[in-house]
Design brief:
Elements lengths: L1 E12 L3 E5 L18 E3 L4 E5 L5 E7 L2 E12 L39 H8 L6 H14 L1 E2 L10 H7 L1 E2 L1 H14 L4 E7 L15 E8 L2 E5 L11 E6 L8 E3 L3 E12 L13 E2 L7
Parallel strand pairs: 7-8
Antiparallel strand pairs: 1-6, 1-14, 2-5, 2-13, 3-6, 4-5, 9-10, 9-12, 10-11, 14-15
Helix pairs in contact: 2-4, 3-4
Length: 288
């Protein structure tokens, strides 16, 4: 299947402001691109891309004073298959985990494992390790938190989300990640596109989405505590320890977000590039 995706963003800057953007799809999906994937700026600005320590593509620029518009749209090939359920994937003991997965067992800025460890072991310690334990964590988080865009708060930690019983997709991911790490399961945060493909269309304006991946049986598997069932058409932008590592936009000065529109839809054979319907919002959660 083919998916058309992209965004239209705009900032208003009081003066020249250095910025780092994380808006390019992850290099692991570059081979699937069917059209050019390029960030376009209005007015034109000088920018350069680099890869961070997690392998994500970042864009550096100096945004000029005034209105700065940022656009992209592209077509990408997708298998059309839902997330792999990993039914028999076992948990690997800490002493046998690859070195590069160990950072994803430790606490991080928003995944404050030290506050949740005792609870996690009491709640999930008697559940069979591996996929069953991860799914039990997803079920718990899905039932524990109430989703709502009006619940967005950019500094909420996993433990705070657990106590407040509410949040947006990043809070579902943070809590599930923290509980997995408490149980010595490597878990990492993902952000990207997730359209309403194969599911009823959500009437709310589209946003970038957050989910997580766990390391089981020698590879990474996708899980999503917010939706809590396999989905079709995820397009990863970035991965990290938590949302602090994959902020869509970091401005080193005053830059007000005044337009935020994201779209991702299955593309029909008769469509031309740029014909997708999309809505505009200014949710701060995408940039927190």
């Amino acid at each position: 299947m083919e998916i058309e995706a992209g965004y239209d963003l705009a900032f208003n800057c009081d003066r020249d402001v250095p910025m780092v953007l994380m808006l390019s799809i992850h290099p692991s999906r570059h081979r699937d691109l069917l059209t050019e994937h390029k960030i376009r700026f209005s007015p034109n600005v000088t920018y350069r891309n680099y890869r961070d320590s997690f392998g994500n593509v970042c864009t550096r620029l100096r945004a000029p004073a005034g209105l700065v518009e940022i656009h992209n749209r592209f077509i990408i090939s997708d298998s059309g298959r839902p997330d792999d359920l990993a039914p028999d994937a076992p948990q690997i003991g800490v002493d046998h985990l690859p070195d590069d997965t160990l950072m994803y067992v430790l606490g991080s800025r928003y995944c404050d494992t030290q506050k949740l460890s005792s609870f996690a072991w009491s709640q999930f310690g008697n559940i069979a390790s591996g996929r069953q334990r991860v799914q039990a964590i997803c079920d718990y988080v899905h039932d524990r938190l109430e989703f709502g865009y009006h619940h967005a708060r950019c500094d909420r930690t996993a433990a705070e989300g657990h106590e407040e019983c509410r949040g947006v997709c990043r809070d579902f991911a943070h809590l599930a990640i923290a509980l997995c790490r408490c149980m010595n399961i490597p878990a990492r945060y993902c952000t990207g596109y997730l359209g309403d493909i194969g599911v009823p269309k959500d009437p709310a304006p589209m946003d970038f989405s957050a989910w997580f991946e766990v390391y089981l049986g020698g590879r990474w598997y996708t899980f999503d505590a917010r939706h809590n069932h396999p989905r079709i058409g995820r397009i990863v932008i970035a991965r990290g320890r938590d949302a602090a590592d994959v902020a869509i936009s970091i401005a080193f000065g005053p830059a007000r977000l005044i337009n935020f529109s994201v779209f991702t839809e299955e593309r029909m054979a008769s469509q031309e590039l740029g014909t997708c319907n999309h809505a505009t919002t200014n949710r701060e959660t995408a940039f927190a």
